[in-house]
């Protein structure tokens, strides 16, 4: 998986007043617009890299055991994903918040997906769009009642590891283990600031994301771009060489510290087990 880079923090006092259109809200607006446009919720495409070790041009994490979550898509013209996005129809472009569910036929194991991304210069990928929901609950003196997890560097959201007794469970709102919280009371992009908002706010407004439910169908029903004819007629391979910075970034070690946070309790830091 492409190396994640540190993100700037957003002070809690400035989050709502100075930045009302937070990243969490932006993702929500994009998802809502896609639903209105009746875009495909899952599609397959091919990404071409200069070499197997080259960067794809996105930032992912391995928190979800089954799939990879795209935190950010590179805006650099030289990246493979940007070259793909430039050529692809709008409805089939890669976006922040998408899920990678298959790489060259490998699926169901995020660590295996990561390995496959770095094993080939030609990647056949299946992406699934996110489903975002706005939720609200009142703590009324109770703990929220969830354990969350996030990468110590580069994370833009909180991954729900476990739910316990507390305000969320008792309110009955639609949050399950494996969901991602992308915004807390307008605070987004910085997990620590989001945790602070979750502890300090009441009521609590959330933007929560999970993969869109997809009914398993025959392989021929999966949206693919480009078709074999399109691929034969178009030069979709990247313009070599990709920048040396991509190679250096892709060679960085994949070991990262994950931060485990029990909301209302102490925050601990540990190494991932996988």
Structural key phrases:
274 residues; alpha+beta; 7-stranded mixed beta sheet; 7-stranded antiparallel beta sheet; 8 helices; 24% helix; 28% strand; elongated; disordered C terminus
Note the overall shape.
Answer: elongated
User: Could you give a short account of the major beta sheet?
Assistant: 7 strands, mixed
The number of E-state strands comes to 14
In angstroms, what is the radius of gyration? 19 Å
What percent of residues are in strands? 25-35%
SSE topology string? HHEEEHEEHEEEEHEHEEHHEE
- Unreliable stretches (pLDDT < 50, length at least 5) are 1-21, 215-220, 227-258, 260-274
Overall pLDDT: 74
Task: Please tell me about this protein's structure.
With 274 residues, this protein is of the alpha+beta class. It has helices at residues 12-18, 23-36, 80-87, 110-117, 167-171, 191-200, 228-233, 244-250; strands at residues 42-48, 58-61, 68-73, 99-103, 106-107, 122-128, 130-137, 146-151, 158-163, 180-184, 204-211, 223-225, 258-262, 267-270. 24% of the residues lie in helices and 28% in strands. The two termini are 14 Å apart. Mean pLDDT is 74; it is low at 1-21, 215-220, 227-258 and 260-274.
